[in-house]
Design brief:
Number of strands: 13
Mean pLDDT: 84
CATH topology of the largest domain: Porin
Helix content: 10-25%
Strand order of the largest sheet: 6-7-8-9-10-11-12-13
Structural class: mainly beta
Number of domains: 2
Order of helices and strands: HHEEEEEHEEEEEEEE
CATH architecture of the largest domain: Beta Barrel
Oligomer: single chain
Distance between the termini: 39 Å
Low-confidence stretches: 20-30
Strand content: over 45%
Radius of gyration: 25 Å
Number of helices: 3
Length: 280
């Protein structure tokens, strides 16, 4: 009965994972979207972002990915036109193309003793800089994270660390091996998980929150210790075992790094656990 419930939970998660296939099929039939464009001065650029000043204290942040047509290098203070697909809500638009319309203006050294004015990059508002940094963090190929969890059957408090590598094969697939330690009244657990996750394209990949599913095999070493006082003395019972199971998971990931996750295990323990963590 216990194994059946775990398999059922896993099948439910797999059902949610099948949604992208239908979404991709629907999107292939969607007519082409008209691109919008913004003109301005580049005040910050990286391998994953470009920030354009479009007016007095007006800044636009764009995501740059492998599908963006752009110069090999985007120089600071160059005049550019950025074409992008408008996205409603709090999602950051992804640049379809970055076209340089004028090179940077040569910087002439001041002949007076006055201090030079601060650069445009130094004047970028903190909210814009924070958004740019969160996108850079989100698009890193290698990340590490930590998590804490409460587990049921058996009842445990768990702590873990993991690495995230990718994307692999697809822009939404990542490998995420992890190590977890669990402590309970009777049980101590060491779990080694070989999981992969898939980000569901139900929202834009630059949205503040994203939904993902995943799973993978797990090796769980558990030690159960029971001590009881009797008339004849103390009885100490201990048992060490190794379970090979399979994990199913579904979670929410914040662009800032915070995530919450529900995980179920088949053929091993714990049956279910709720996790909260942070990806650096």
């Amino acid at each position: 009965m216990r194994t059946s419930s775990r398999l059922l939970a896993g099948l439910v998660m797999i059902f949610f994972a099948s949604y992208p296939v239908m979404a991709d099929a629907q999107s292939s039939q969607t007519p082409a979207v008209t691109l919008s464009s913004v003109q301005g001065t580049v005040v910050s650029a990286s391998t994953s972002t470009v920030v354009v000043k479009t007016g007095e204290n007006q800044y636009s942040v764009f995501v740059v990915d492998r599908n963006t047509a752009r110069p090999q290098a985007i120089p600071m203070h160059a005049q550019v036109t950025v074409r992008f697909v408008p996205i409603p809500g709090d999602s950051t638009p992804i640049a379809d193309s970055v076209i340089m319309t004028a090179p940077p203006t040569p910087q002439v050294a001041a002949l007076t003793g006055e201090a030079p004015p601060p650069s445009e990059e130094a004047q970028i508002p903190g909210s814009v800089r924070s958004l740019e940094n969160s996108i850079k963090r989100q698009t890193k190929k290698y990340r590490i994270g930590v998590s804490g969890a409460t587990a049921l059957d058996p009842e445990l408090f768990m702590f873990g660390a993991h690495g995230r590598f990718g994307p692999l094969f697809s822009e939404n697939i990542y490998a995420r091996p992890s190590l977890e330690l669990g402590f309970g009244e009777l049980t101590t657990l060491l779990a080694l998980n070989f999981e992969g996750v898939y980000r569901l394209p139900v929202v834009q990949k630059t949205s503040r929150w994203g939904v993902y599913v995943g799973g993978g095999p797990a090796l769980n070493w558990s030690h159960v210790n029971f001590v009881e006082e009797t008339d004849r003395g103390k009885i100490d019972f201990g048992d060490m075992s190794l379970d090979v199971g399979f994990n199913f998971l579904i979670g929410l990931q914040s662009r800032d790094g915070v995530f919450v996750e529900l995980k179920s295990s088949a053929y091993s323990l714990p049956t279910i656990r709720f996790e909260i963590g942070y990806n650096f």
